[in-house]
Amino acid sequence: MTSNxxxxxxxxxxxxxxxxGIPDLYAGMTNSMLHRCRAFVELAGVEVTILTYEYxxxxxIVRTRLRERGAMIDGMHLMNVxxxxxxxxxAKLRNVSxxxxxxxxxxxxFIPLGDxxxxxxxxxxxxxxPDGNVVQIDYFRADGTMFASDRRKVPGPKSRAFTLxxxxxxxxxxxxxxxxxxxxxxxxxxxxxxxxxxxxxxxxANHMVExxxxxxxxxxxxxxxxxxxxxxRPHGELVESRRRAFERLDxxxxxxxxxxxxxxxxxxxxxxxxxxxxxxxGRHVPTTSPELKRSSLKGVMLTSLSKRKQIGHAVxxxxxxxxxxxxxxxxDVFGQGAQDKxxxxxxxxxxANVDLRGYSDDAAREFDTASFSxxxxxxxxxxxxxxxxxxxxxxxxxxxxxxxxxxxxxxxVDGYLVPADDIEALAAxxxxxxxxxxxxxxxxxxxxxxxxxxxxxxxxTARWAEAMQAxxxxxxxxx
Length: 479
Known about the structure:
Blueprint: E1 14-18, H1 28-44, E2 48-52, H2 59-69, E3 76-80, H3 81-85, H4 90-94, E4 118-121, E5 124-128, E6 134-140, E7 146-151, E8 161-165, E9 171-175, H5 179-187, E10 195-199, H6 202-208, E11 216-221, H7 240-247, E12 254-257, H8 260-270, E13 276-278, E14 298-302, H9 311-320, E15 330-334, H10 340-350, E16 354-358, E17 372-375, H11 384-391, E18 395-399, H12 405-408, E19 416-418, H13 423-434, H14 438-453, H15 457-478
Parallel strand pairs: 1-2, 1-10, 2-3, 10-11, 11-12, 12-13, 14-15, 14-17, 15-16, 17-18, 18-19
Antiparallel strand pairs: 4-5, 5-6, 6-7, 7-8, 8-9
Helix pairs in contact: 6-7, 9-10, 9-13, 11-14
């Protein structure tokens, strides 16, 4: 336990969050995962370990960065499969749970790179083909001995050969599916008495959906749309990156959707299931009333600069909103992404009063002084930024897109919903706020704050406790 005061009890066991990696400049899914883990620690008094698969030469840098940002606190831990494997002794390596799936590592499967490839990283040597595709990766311990070799283009029916090596660098056995390595790693982690694996990333979901153990409960959180862009809802086509996890949706011990709308559409497309739950993202919402006296002209967006976010719509909306006397509404956009340069050109072309401010750890503080926030995405899994905005009395203006805004905002009461992709309606909503006196906006700011409190961490963590108990009960009943 990490706390003497348990506000929301979670089921007993070891708690894990499964991610592919932790980006240096993260938002969205990673931010939500980290916040949930922190809430589990603070409110339930449990330890939570974040599991990652992405290779990095030094994860201590990541840990330090997360702690400096306040995203990791005491009781939260970060483990990586490659970092952990480097420390396994021979007994643990030879008794790995997936050893029954080993094939003999002969000279057609295990061929160390030697001097071939890129040796820039002393812990990982990589060989690419002429087109830049990875052919083989050899992994090493700090003492220079090899602990694994991953060949990607192996002759025969199996295209991959992952060989595990002992402390002398000699091969122990070869898996022809790297998921055997991942499952063996998960098997090595403590249970006490049940392991709770919450899989957030769609990449890790591909192997987690087949991880079945009597002492492990595996839950998948769906952070994005399940449908391919351009396909009709609800009878569209599954996006390829989610197909494996969704075609086996009933195999999960639990599946968590962020909105009722998305769950209903999944039920229509795939048929109903008993393992599905709706749990929105939680946030720490200040209990004190927000500042009500603020300029009506200041707007803010916290987002990634990607095509899906359609920030160009916000630029045009601000431009078309017009002046208030001699002044124009202003929008600060915080975030980074591939659309930075095109957006800067668009801002100049439309003479929009918009500044791209880049990434900032403190961007959420802007909600304390901004009058309104904008969300112009083509789709969202939830729209957590709306709750953040409302919690600080910043009035949200959002497209009514799938899936979250309509389940968060009550139009005209605590924010504004405008038809998706309707830039003129967006501009009209901006104009409505900017031309309203601050005192007249105060009731809407207060209503927004009250609505945000319904998504506070206590409420959301309690829903997690209910879903986890239901998943465990169903697992035991089906055993």
